[in-house]
Amino acid sequence: MSAADASTPWSAWRARRPPFQGIHLDNAAAGPSSMAVLQAVAYHARLEAETGAYVAEAAAAPVLAAGQVDIAGLLGVPVAGIAFVESATAALDTMLSAWPLRPGDRVAVTPSEWGPNLRTFRRRGLAIVDLAVDDGGLLDLDALERMLTRTPPAAVALTHVASHRGLVQPVRATAALCRAAGVPLWVDAAQAIGHVDTAVDADVLYCPGRKWLTGPRGVGILAIAERWWDALELEPPAMPPGDWPIVHALQSFEAHIAGRVGLCTAVREHLADGPACIWARLNEVGRLTRATLSGLRGWEVVAAAEDSGAISALRPTDGQDVVAVRARLLAEHGILTTAGLPVRAPGDMTGPLLRVSPQVDCSEESLVALRDALGSF
Ligand SMILES: Cc1ncc(COP(=O)(O)O)c(C=O)c1O
Prior knowledge:
It is a single chain. The chain has 377 residues and is of the alpha/beta class. Helices cover 39% and strands 13% of the residues. The protein has 12 helices and 13 strands. The protein has a 7-stranded mixed sheet with strand order 2-8-7-6-5-3-4, sandwiched between helices. A 4-stranded antiparallel sheet has the order 9-10-13-12. Strand 5 (155-159), helix 8 and strand 6 form a beta-alpha-beta unit. The two termini are 21 Å apart. Pyridoxal-5'-phosphate is lined by residues 87-89, 114, 159, 163, 188, 190-191, 208, 220.
């Protein structure tokens, strides 16, 4: 139902995937993998059983190496700066375990920072300071420049694309200011990779592969710019044998290798589709979503700038229980959405939001179905 019909430009993207049982408007949680990705995962898992897990891993080395080159290109760091980990959460924790920090160091964030990141920063003994934003939640670059000059933090952390609503931070401009001030910029690219341009000259980027890249679950990426490699403090047990690039030493060694092979396959497909075409299409999808859902009784479309990507949010205005609405949409209409609770971005959210995040194959028909279903409750 959510599939674009054969006349739309993204029908080939849809046709490469198993038919979805319903309407998938929840790609910010996890996107649907293609048959090629599913087959690559299954093939590697079978090879492990047939030849031995570590023999199979050695056989997959060229695929993994090529995938790391592709990913390095998407994130704008050298390939030796890429480590496979299990998730964005794992990547951030791994990075912080090696970053040269002292307890009490300050990390500056915007209100839309991914909530669990804040907990991770605090757990690591970092003090959180707030960055100024405009009315729409976008980082105020002038205020940032003043902070970087007067009271520079140990790092600036920015969630590139917010999880809970259409909000894309000016990461490239932020990176330039941070670079000039000698302050590292850590970018949460969980919702950004495969969605917007992530080659933004950040010092650190981290993300999972399961969302807009439509890779398998359980595989994430940590990317660190070369200028920081010598400063990383690796714990001896993390050091692998041999002469490996330093960031590879942060990679998890016992891992879902089949998933990594699948992610490398997904990234190849993403590159073949053309990242810039995908980014433009996802902006278009976001605009279509907000236009189709605006004016719906009992719901307010959360305002978003023109090119805010494909994540949109609806705020209940009649006291509806968003968790219950999300469950009814799925059970009664087969429509998959997210009930976004404030824990996702406690600095920016004042209450639950219904998140709608279609992929490139989004059809107007699927959005109308959502509108009609919400209208019928
Ligand atoms: C902005 C953002 N950061 C981080 C994460 C956490 O990613 P993971 O589940 O791979 O740890 C998410 C997950 O939805 C997210 O939206």
